[in-house]
Write a structure and sequence with these properties.
about 40% helix; 5-stranded parallel sheet; elongated; 2 domains; UDP N-Acetylglucosamine Acyltransferase, domain 1; alpha/beta
Length: about 260
């Protein structure tokens, strides 16, 4: 028991730069208190002392702000960072080395008793603040769930889930997309001081579309010049765009409003 507590304390010291000493972690970190109290509640639950397990869980909720069902399974070195408002359901499983931030819900979408209703987190999973992981599926080892994401389907190992509803971003695909996006002058998933990534992506696409519009207009002008000097002139459709009509500046302005 004491060796597990030492391991829990050390993992907090390793992951939280604000932690200054073991004594501070032992006395001032509700995430650690919630894990220790959950082990007591879970032990009571597995021994058949259901009411006692729920009561310990209830006391822990009042003391720490973290609600963990006594039947939930939690591995070693799990860190609830800040973690006020975290809810962990009955059939949830949290693997070793996971980090869970405040406002996270590991919830279920089924009302059938005895069914696997809550998610299973693999090893070293990171769940961002405010994220909701709902359902009896698995989040693979080393995966990440972005802040405020709503995840309702499995997340492969090493992947990242972002958005509502969450979309899955694979590590290799993400790296390529970031490389391409940086060439266009924006970061696909980063956050800047004065902008958000979706707005930046839209602006990049708009600028790219405006460039294509310009190139098309130049091509039609070149075709008309070539056709004027030939015996059999090339017929240009009446509806062909000979002038640029794409108003990139106007659409960018709408994004800013």
């Amino acid at each position: 028991m004491f060796s597990r507590i030492r391991s829990d304390v050390q993992c907090i010291l390793d992951r939280d730069p604000a932690a200054r000493s073991r004594w501070e972690v032992l006395t001032c970190y509700p995430g650690l208190h919630a894990v220790v109290l959950h082990r007591l509640a879970h032990g009571s639950w597995t021994l058949g002392l259901k009411w006692l397990g729920r009561f310990i869980s209830h006391i822990s909720r009042g003391l720490t702000g973290i609600e963990i069902h006594p039947a939930a399974k939690i591995g070693e070195r799990v860190f609830f960072d800040h973690a006020m408002g975290v809810v962990v359901g009955e059939t949830a499983e949290i693997g070793d080395g996971c980090t869970i931030y405040q406002g996270v819900t590991l919830g279920g979408t089924s009302l059938y008793k005895g069914a696997k209703r809550h998610p299973t987190l693999g090893k070293d999973v990171v769940i961002g603040a405010g994220a909701k992981v709902l359902g009896g599926f698995t989040v693979g080892d080393g995966a990440k769930v972005g802040s405020n994401a709503v995840v309702t389907k499995p997340v492969p190992a090493g992947a990242t889930a972002v958005g509502n509803p969450a979309r899955i971003i694979h590590a290799e695909t993400d790296a390529k997309r970031e490389e391409t996006a940086s060439k266009m002058g924006f970061s696909a998933y980063g956050v800047t001081q004065n902008d958000d990534p979706v707005s930046q992506a839209m602006r990049g696409l708009i600028d790219n579309a405006a460039t294509q519009e310009h190139q098309i207009a130049l091509l039609w002008q070149a075709i008309e010049q070539l056709s004027s000097g030939q015996a059999l002139p090339v017929r240009v459709p009446n509806d062909a765009a000979r002038k640029e009509q794409f108003e990139a500046a106007r659409i960018n302005q709408l994004l800013e409003e």
